[in-house]
Design a protein that fits this description.
The structure is a single chain. This protein is of the alpha/beta class. The chain contains 6 helices and 6 strands. The chain has a single domain, classed as Protein-Tyrosine Phosphatase, Chain A (Alpha-Beta Complex). Helices cover about 35% and strands about 15% of the residues. Strands 1-2-6-3-4-5 form a 6-stranded parallel sheet, sandwiched between helices. Helix 5 packs across helix 6. This is Mur ligase C-terminal domain-containing protein.
């Protein structure tokens, strides 16, 4: 990445998130995905936030860090009981996100005895320009298409880049590396 303010930021990275209770991050080289596309940036941050207050604070920090880039949040709710108990809090936690993806609940040690579904949250979310449920098996492919569209300039408001946060305490930690691998596979060399 160039430190010159006039040069385009061509970074693709998963940096450590200093405010995370349990930071999980991985720095990845930028060349394969960014260079063919031109001067856009994709930054992926994997954060442990899985409570509405943590999510709200993490997204506020991301918005401050974004410097005009779009802020996308990808939530994997953690346990059915926590999701049901905190549903109203989740509904207001995403005000600083431009786009929100909600995927399947990470059950951990639980079974779905409460009849809750991620669509319950999608129906209640207020604020983000785009909100949607994406089933876990389809998540990486959907993100790859949306990132490619946004960073390829087909979504003008996001042509400057995307700061994408994966939020949760389950298997969501695998999404960033899998997304970057998918984008690299699609990028002509």
């Amino acid at each position: 990445s160039s430190t010159d303010a006039a040069a385009p930021d061509r970074s693709v990275a998963m940096p450590a998130h200093a405010g995370s209770p349990l930071p999980r991050s991985q720095a990845l080289p930028a060349t394969a995905v960014a260079d063919p596309m031109g001067g856009w940036s994709l930054e992926i941050i994997d954060d442990y936030a899985h409570h509405p207050t943590e999510i709200r604070l993490t997204l506020a920090a991301a918005r401050a860090r974004a410097h005009g880039r779009a802020v996308w949040a990808v939530l994997q709710p953690h346990t059915y009981s926590r999701f049901a108990a905190l549903l109203d809090g989740f509904a207001t936690a995403f005000a600083d996100a431009d786009r929100v993806y909600v995927t399947d609940i990470y059950a951990a040690r639980e079974t779905d005895d409460l009849g809750r579904h991620p669509m319950d949250l999608v129906a209640r979310l207020a604020g983000p320009a785009a909100v949607g449920y994406v089933p876990w098996p389809e998540l990486v492919d959907r993100l790859a298409v949306d990132v490619r569209d946004a960073l390829g300039g087909r979504v003008p408001a996001q042509a400057g880049g995307v700061l994408l946060l994966t939020l949760g305490a389950g298997t969501i930690t695998t999404v960033g590396p899998r997304l970057l691998a998918a984008l690299r596979e699609e990028t002509p060399r």
